[in-house]
TrEMBL record:
Transmembrane segments: none annotated. One of its GO terms (molecular function) is ATP binding. This is 1-phosphatidylinositol 4-kinase. It comes from Urochloa decumbens. Belongs to the PI3/PI4-kinase family. Type II PI4K subfamily. Signal peptide: none annotated. Residues 33-44 have a biased composition (Basic and acidic residues). Its EC number is 2.7.1.67.
Amino acid sequence: MAIAVGHFHDVEPPDVRGRHCRLHSVAQLDSPLLDRDNHREHSDAGGGAGHTGLSPRRRSQSSPCFTTVAAPAGGADHRPPPESSGKMPRVEVVAGRHARGVRELIAEAAAAIASGTRLVPAQGGLGGALLLTGSRAGEHVAVIKPLGDDTAAAGYESKAVLREVAAFLLDHGGFASVEPTALIKISRPVAAPMTTTTTVASIQRFVAHEYDAGELGPSRFSVASVHRVGILDVRLLNIDRHAGNILVKNPPSSSRMQQPLDLVPIDHGLCLPEQLDDPYFEWLHWPQSSLPFSDDELAYVASLDPFRDAETLRAELPALEEPAIRILMLCTIFLKRAAAAGLCLADIGDMMTREFTAQEEEGLSTFEALCKDAHDAVHPPSLLPCPPPDGDGVGEGTATSSSGGRKHVSFGDLSVAEWEAFLERFEQLLPAALDAKKRAASS
């Protein structure tokens, strides 16, 4: 079976031409595999093991994903014959088309499929992810995770895959080493005349690795890598950064024991929740997190523009809910102010993380308490209690709810004017909280 691939504005990557294939069609696309479990969200990211070390609430519901698109070699005329052109499945790059490394990723996937490789289920994890192997034995190009049918394609029903793409789009210049990721829509004809089925998937470059962070001690990791992953997690309010979704990048064989190891973050399906929640930062108590940011890291944080990032997400991922985008803006502002005030990554993460009281009940984090005060100042809470959020907070709630003495704040209930007033009030409250944290850390 062949598959048609959407153009990158008629740009053909040179490396694909060199392999005598181009991005117009591919062979050996396994429809049964792509059709399987479209509505489920899985956690096997980057082909890594299914290690989580966490309760079911903490398990990642998504994974970095890879899509198969390619074009076999042919004669001088690469176009399909007229009688088959109407029956070819089509692949469209829905989001991330122009982002760093996406065109190259699609080209490599195309070349791999053209060379005769097939999709195979990934080993380990919660299942559902598909590996695209390269032309050399044991080499993986990408992981594919189908995520929806026609309904999901139209409405982006699976929000986890949107967050995977969002994390990549927000990793400017590859600062945190998020691998190239794009959103793909695959349309395939079925037996009924003039009928097609549509599958949505995300595609992400496979990360070559031998270990995840849970299999090595943190002393082996470079300070820069820990800081960069942490900066990304703070911006995204990642509630699922456990050791199993931090991969340890393979160093050159000649220097395996001579230099700190770099990290690659995967599995971002539980970042950017739609209401404030308790993040999980595996790196929080690593020694690197207590070291000051470098000048380059401070410059990067200072350069972040939360309002421009918000516009990027609205343009590329219009189905991502506005409360999630506002979480990004808020967390980025918090990160910028905290870093400028001289706080280290561990201090920033600690302010965002809830503590357990003597009665083993979660209390508000410092960050949440600031947000609650600012929210209540511009939008007084309702006297009627709302049911508590279900699970991880992703895709939950557009209002402030109360239960058991604790509030879960979302910003979907704020008008544009109220949101602007909230940010203004938040920034008024923030300096005193940052000063208090600095005094506590130095005492």
